[in-house]
C-alpha cells in the first residue's frame, strides 16, 4: 500500500479509465472491499452486495452491456454543451476518456459491481400509517445513499494501493442484462460499476469549482466566506 495521507488520496483519486493488463492480487481486492464496508449505511442495515468480476468472458459480457449503455449516453450528450466550469480542453479530455472506457470496459482486470439488496426500512409501505407513507415518498431519493459512501471508500482505498478506478453508472440503462450475466436475483439492484486496475495515466490533481461558489451560510444565497 502506498504511504499516502487521507487528504492526498482525496485530492488525487481522479477518474482513471485506462488500465494495464496486470492482475490485481485477491488480497488487495479484499482489503479494498473491507475498507468499502466500513462506510455508513441507512439504519446500519449493510444490505450491500459486491460482485468482483475477474473472469475474462464475464468481463467481456459486461463490457458489451456497458458499450450499449454508452450508445444511450452519447445520444443523450449529442446536444449537451460543456459545463461552464470546464474549459474546452478539459471537456474534450473527459469525453475522450469516457468514450475510451465505453469501448474498453472489459480490459480492466477487475470489474466491481456495487449493489444493494432490499432492507427492512422502507419495505411494505402499504402497512404504514398514511403520514408515514407520505413521508416515504422522499425515500426513493435516498436509494443510493446506502451504497455510494462505500463506493467512495473503495475509490480512496484503490488510490492507496496505487489502483485506478472510476464510478460508472451507464450499465444501468440495460441493468437487466448485467443482472442476467451475473445471475443476480430480481430484488438486487446495481448502483455502480467500477473498473479497477493499475492505471496507465497518473493520479490527480482533482480540479473542482471552489468552495466559495458552492457553499452557503445558514440560507440559500448567503455566501460562505470562511
Ligand atoms: C453518479 C456518477 C456517475 C458517473 N457515471 C460515469 C459513467 O457512466 N462513465 C464514466 O466514464 N464516468 C462516470 N462518472 C465519472 C465522472 O465522469 C467523474 O467522476 C467526473 O468527471 C470527475 O472526474 P475527476 O475526478 O477525474 O475530475 C460518474 C460519476 C458519478 C459521481
Question: What would you note in describing this structure?
Answer:
There is one protein chain. The chain has 226 residues and is an alpha+beta fold. It has a single domain (6-118, 142-214), classed as NADH Oxidase (3-Layer(aba) Sandwich). It is built from nine helices and four strands; from the N terminus they run ααβααβαααβαβα. The protein has helices at 6-12, 26-36, 56-77, 88-104, 130-135, 139-142, 148-160, 175-182, 211-214, and strands at 48-53, 110-116, 164-165, 189-197. Strands 1-2-4-3 form a four-stranded antiparallel β-sheet, sandwiched between helices. Helix 1 (6-12) packs across helix 7, helix 2 packs across helix 7 (148-160) and helix 3 (56-77) packs antiparallel against helix 4 (88-104). The mean pLDDT is 94. The structure holds flavin mononucleotide. Flavin mononucleotide is lined by residues 14-15, 17, 94, 98, 101, 166-170, 206. Flavin mononucleotide binds at residues 14-15, 17, 94, 98, 101, 166-170, 206.
